[in-house]
Amino acid sequence: MSQRLFFFVVSVTLVGTLCLAQEAPVVMSVNRPPDGSVTVQIANHHQAALTAYVLEVDREPVAANGPHGRGILYFDSLINPWQNKSFAPGETRTIRVAGPSRGPTPWQITPTLKAAVFEDGTTFGDSDTVALVIAARKMFFEELGKAISLIQTAKAQGMSREELIREATRQQQADLAGAQEPEEKRAVANPWGTLRTNLKRDASLPLENAEEAVLQMFMRLRQGLIQAKPSVAPQGATVNPAN
């Protein structure tokens, strides 16, 4: 019986504009049509695929007492490859980040491209932000290992669907306590959310089939992280943490 896997996603919103020098390996530019909408173009000028980037977005109030805010857009094709596909060399994508405005906007949006990571291990931008990307990948790798181990234990012990869902929730809550940055929290939440979503979405599907499908998905993700540059997996790490 064929089935479609669902990957848990924590969504973020990007609004803003930035134009970097043409020699930069990744360039972001903005278009602001008269209707108040905002589209952003992100171009990969590097010889290798762009696998991750981080944008910091400031909202400066137009009025003296207007709202002020700051947000982060975090893109990583290794943590969420279903929603975030890597950018091929030379590829440019247009993203609509804000719809038409019915009136004057209360703030001026100013984003900053903080960091980018490429498939060949090249990094670009603020070193602390690059370090956050790598830290999030390491945490995701660890969480995948824990999720794989839990599924294997559940299969061996004959856990029910409800017991496995409860244990996945408990493990996520425990691990979130050690995550500081939003990127790390997403890296922790994604495997457990994915596991619960696929267990809940079709109760008529045999539990062993659902478990095996998610298990294979998580092993493929771990394999991608083992091969990733810069390195995020411990030396000698394997796809199956039990090996």
The main pleated sheet reads as:
4 strands, antiparallel
Strand content: 15-25%
CATH fold type of the largest domain: Immunoglobulin-like
| Mean model confidence by pLDDT | 83
Q: Could you estimate the helical fraction of the residues in percent?
A: 25-40%
CATH class of the largest domain: Mainly Beta
Give a count of the beta strands, DSSP E runs of length 2 or more: 7
Number of helices: 4
* Structure classification: alpha+beta
Rg is 20 Å
Domains (count): 2
Low-confidence residue ranges: 6-22
Shape estimate: globular
* Gross CATH architecture of the largest domain: Sandwich
Separation, N- and C-terminal Cα atoms? 29 Å
Oligomer: single chain
Walk across the major sheet and give the strand order. 4-3-6-7
Order of H and E elements: EEEEEEEHHHH
Folded structure, characterized:
This protein is α+β, with helices and mostly antiparallel strands and 243 residues long. The chain has 2 domains: 26-125, Immunoglobulin-like (Sandwich); 128-226, no CATH class. The chain is built from 4 helices and 7 strands, in the order E-E-E-E-E-E-E-H-H-H-H. The protein has helices spanning 127-157, 161-176, 182-200, 207-226, and strands spanning 26-31, 38-44, 50-61, 69-76, 92-98, 107-118, 123-125. Strand 3 and strand 4 (69-76) form a beta hairpin. The longest helix has 31 residues, at 127-157. The radius of gyration is 20 Å and the shape is globular. The two termini are 29 Å apart.
